[in-house]
Amino acid sequence: MSIRGAAFIAGAYEHPGRVLPDTSTAQIHVEAAVGALADAGLDLTDVDGYLCSGDAPGGPIAMADHLGLAARHLDSTDLGGSTYVAEVSHAAQAIAAGKCSVVLITMGGRPRSAGRRVPPSAGPAQPFEMPYGHSNPASYALAARRHMHEFGTTPAQLAEVKVAAAAHAQHNPNAFLQKPVTVEEVLGSPLIAAPLHRLDCCVVTDGGGALVVVSPQVAQSLERRTVKVLGAGEAAKHTDLGRIDLTYTGAVWSGPRAFTEAGVSHADIDYVSIYDSFTITVIITLEDLGFCAKGEGGRFVSDGTLQATGRLPFNTDGGSLCNNHPANRGGMTRTIEAVRQLRGEAAAAVQVPNCDLALVHGTGGWLGTRMGSATLILGQEDA
Amino acid sequence: MTSAERRFPDVDPPVEPGLEPYWEAATEGRLVLSRCAEDGAALWPPRPFCPRHASAGVRWEPAGGGAEVYSYTVVHRGEGAFAAVAPYVLAYVQLDEGPRMLTNLVTSDGRPATEASIGQRVVARFEQQGKLPVLRFTQSH
Fold first, then answer.
1. What does the domain layout of chain A look like in residue ranges?
2. Which residues of A are less than 8 Å from B118 in CB distance?
3. pLDDT higher than 70, residue A378
4. Angle between helices A279-289 and A251-262 (to 10 degrees)
5. Given a cut of 60, is residue B3 above it in pLDDT?
6. pLDDT higher than threshold 90 for residue A320
7. Distance (Å, rounded) from C-alpha A338 to C-alpha B113?
8. Which CATH superfamily is domain A8-116+202-380 in?
9. Cβ–Cβ contact B56 with A under 8 A
10. Which domains are seen in chain B, by residue range?
11. Cβ–Cβ below 8 Å for A142 and B71
C-alpha cells in the first residue's frame, strides 16, 4: 500500500511564542491544536485521530483527555526531532487504512524557560556514553570533524548554512533571531564544541505547532487550500555494533524510500525543509538525500544555493538555526514551512515562485551515536 | 577550578545486569570485548547477544587496548556536571580489534586532554569514576 495521494495536510499552525515562561506545555499543545484546526476550517470535535510524541505532558492518553478528543486512532511515535515528519506519514497510513479521517498532530515544549534537556545517551548504551560528556553540540561536532577530515569541508562552508538561514529569518517577524549574519560573524562566535561555533547551533526556544492531516474526501469538503502527501521514508541509523561511520545519516535510506513512493526526482523539488539542528546536519543531509555527491555538501552550499533566490531554497522561515526550535525538536516547524511554501503563503521575500513540490527531512537524535530519520515529499493539492 | 584540578565528574549511569564479564574485567583494569560466538565479530558497546546470530551467544575476549583516533571534538562548553571540566576532548577511537568507541582522551596523569588529532595513536586505561570503572584513552608512547 502506498500513501501517495492518500491524505492531505489541511491545517498547519506554528505557535508565535518563542519565550513562554508563563504558559504550560499542555496549553501550548492546546493553542497549537486550535490554531491548526482553525486554519483547516475544522474543530476539535471533528478530530478522530490524534498523534503526539512521548514527550507530550502525560502522553497521548492525557493529551486526548485534555483536548476532549473522541479519537479512534492514537500514536505516540518518538523519533526525537524527526517525529512529526514521520507522523504525517503515519497519519496518511491510518487514513489509507480507513482508521480515521481527520488526524491532529500536536507538539510543544519549553526548553528555554524550563531548561529541559534531552539525555543524549539514554538506552542500553548509557554506561558507555554518559561518562564522557556527550552533549548535543559535541555529538554533531564529531561528525563535522570527520567530514572535514575526509572531504575537506571547511568551517566557512558550515557557516554558509547559517548565513542562508539568517537571510531568511529577517523576513519572519516571529523569528527568535532576525538579524542577517556573515560567514565572518559565524566564525568569530565562540567555539561550543570545535569545529562548531555558537552560530553553528540552533536556537533554544519555547513553543510548538500542530498539523491537521485529512482524507481526500474531507480535503475536498474544505475551502482551504490543502497540501498533498506524496511519499515518505523512515530509518534508524546507529552505532552498528561498533562500526559507526560518522559521515552519513539515516537519510541515505529514508530519502530514496520517499522519492520512490512519491515517484518524483530531485530536479522536481522546488523547496526543501531540512532539520537544521546544527549547520553540519544540513550539509550531510543534503548529500545523503542525493542533492549532491557524498563529500560535496560543503561546496554545494557555498554559493548561495540554499538562499530563497538560489538553486535549492531551504528553511525560508529561518529554520531551527534562527527562527524556532521548540521542545528541542525541529520536525514540526520544518513541515509547517513546507506547507506555507506549497500554499504560496511564505513571507513574500522568500516565497519560492511556482512551488509545486517540497521535501521535508527530519533528523531526530544524534549524528554522533544514533538517530531517527524521516523524509516526506509534499505537493500542491493537484500534484 | 584551575586547569590542574580539572577532572571528569562522577555521573553513575544505571548499570543493568548482563554485562558482568565486562565490568569485572574493567574493575581489574582489563578491557574485554563481547564477540559473537558464531562468527567472532566484536560487539560494541558490549552486549550479551549478537543481533546477527541471536541464538549463538557471545564469548568475552581480551583486547590489547591500542587504538587510533577516528574523530574528536574539543568541547569548550560542557553541559551540567561537565561545565566545570571544559575544555575536554570527546572522541571516537577505533580499537585495533575493530570497534569504534566513544571516549575521552586524557593526559598521562588522567586529566582531560585539550587537543587531539585524527589518526593519533592512543592506549586504553580504566579510571574508577564514581561507582564505575570508566574506559578512557591516553597518548601512546
1. 8-116+202-380
2. 145-146, 149
3. yes
4. 50
5. no
6. yes
7. 44
8. Thiolase/Chalcone synthase (3.40.47.10)
9. no
10. 16-62 (no CATH), 64-141 (2.40.50.840)
11. yes
